[in-house]
Amino acid sequence: MGHHQEQKWETVIGLEIHTQLATQSKIFSGAATAYGAEPNTQACAVDLGLPGVLPVLNSEAVNMAVKFGLAIEAEIAPYSVFARKNYFYPDLPKGYQISQFELPIVGKGHLDIDVDGTSKRIGITRAHLEEDAGKSLHENFHGMSGIDLNRAGTPLLEIVSEPDMRSAKEAVAYMRKLHELVRYLGICDGNMQEGSFRCDANVSVRPKGQQEFGTRAEIKNINSFRFVEKAIHHEVERQIELIENGGKVVQETRLYDANKDETRSMRSKEEANDYRYFPDPDLLPVHISEEFKAQIQLQLPELPEAKKLRFKERYQLDEENAGILTASRQLADYFEALVKESACEAKLCANWMTGDLLAALNKADLDITESPVDTRRLAGLMRRIHDDTISGKIAKQVFDLMWQSNATADEIIAEKGLKQITDTGAIEAIIDKIIADNPDQVAQYLSGKDKVFGFFVGQVMKEMQGKASPAEVNKMLKAKLK
Q1: Which of 280, 282, 310, 331 has the lowest tally of Cβ within 10 angstroms?
Q2: Residues 96, 85: contact at Cβ < 8 Å?
Q3: Distance between CA 346 and CA 338 in Å, rounded?
Q4: What is the DSSP string of 256-325?
């Protein structure tokens, strides 16, 4: 896309994010919601829409929706209604989906995002409860489709943003922030591969300075942060090119194809599909009292922003480390436990976690909760770095050995003889030997070539197998080479 084009056009983006709520059972039935079961083994009579069955609302889904509403400082509707959204599709056994239309449970709220160091508030229009549909499978059936109804009736909270985002970058920042929040609240596991967190993006462009919005296209079912960015970029380019070549953007639903990195038309969306919404006669309206809201408010955990601020103040962490360590609740808990158990300065613990520990976890594709090195053992290592038993360089070797075994830092240091030698007599003897063996370098150093100093440090450390305290070696060498 040419630079002049970008200056002329403004992108407008709104996101609809479907979060699968982490309840044990479905929203209107007692069937399990666990992922990965054999097809159609977790679909009961209610999910299948058999004649005569009645839906019963899962109270846990309501608790989770309210929890979310309070976390984004939204209006919680004292009275909300479930409606039937009517359409025909093979994976929708009842011929309608139970959703919320005019009276959703969560009203206007907001989420603040950071992009390139500037904060921006993104409005959230609403969040409503609904049931998921089943899944059509095309892989194993030649010329036919298989239907798996395990997912039918799984509770979803659909979170609809205002069209407040102006770039793909802002959209990704908003999506990441929301992903972090629902996991903090414990209402969604955020697993994108399993479809627990899916995104539809409404994208339009308009000439800069124009007030009214352009015609939007909706890109369906994007399931990774990287794809959201790519899909939006592609769609913006497509629309600008279309308009500049004299064409018109039509309102439609498009599908992003990650393999081809393009969006393609699915079905034309007229002004609005007529879903003939009407209140579901089988379900009572949901009444939410002030007392109930106050009860849920007490269950809210410390939220990411508040935790980040506290980490910066209490542990004197910089913005970057505080951000990394509060990215998930589990990571933050690990850090606080580590500081407490090691009784070392927080900065040392933070640097080790954001450096070596996270690098090892990423490499092994593990979550912090699956770390082979727990806080107790890592705290042991922190103490040995802190009291100068080992140098930072040796600590990395010890950490690698701890990662591969259940041994403690102390056991590994003793077994491998890695203890830092602070006995000045032993260090001095080696320094004397190296000075005697290298008269040329001594002469160079004394004639003002400071760089040669590094050579001596290296030789001493080599001789002592890295076990001498670097600070001690530097101090003694300086004294000897005067």
Answers
A1: 282
A2: yes
A3: 9
A4: EETTTTEEEEEEE--SS-----EE-TTSPPEE--HHHHHHHHHHPPPPHHHHHHHHHHHS---HHHHHHH
Tell me the sheet residues that pair with 76: 106
Can you list the positions of beta strands (E) in 321-455?
A: none
Tens digit of each residue's pLDDT (9 = 90 or more) over 168-226: 999 999 999 999 999 999 999 999 989 999 999 999 999 999 999 999 999 987 888 99
Q: What is the largest CA-CA distance in the chain?
A: 99
Give CA–CA dist 283/285, Å, rounded: 7
Tokens coding 310: 């506290």
Nearest residue to 184 (alpha-carbon basis) of 78, 331, 297: 331
Helix axes 452-463, 439-446, angle to 10 degrees: 140
State the Cα–Cα distance between residues 79 and 64, nearest whole angstrom: 16
Tens-place pLDDT, residues 243-264: 999 999 998 889 888 888 888 8
Structural domain boundaries in the chain: 1-292, 302-409, 424-481
Q: Which CATH number fits domain 424-481: 3.40.30.120, 1.10.10.410, 1.20.58.220, 3.40.309.10?
A: 1.10.10.410
Residues 389/420, Cβ–Cβ less than 8 Å: yes
- Going by C-alpha positions, the residue among 146, 119, 176, 154 that lies closest to residue 29 is 154
User: Which residue has tokens 């106050």?
Assistant: 294
For 426-469, the DSSP string reads HHHHHHHHHHHH-HHHHHHHHTT-TTHHHHHHHHHHHHTTT-B-
Kindly report the pTM of this predicted structure. 0.83
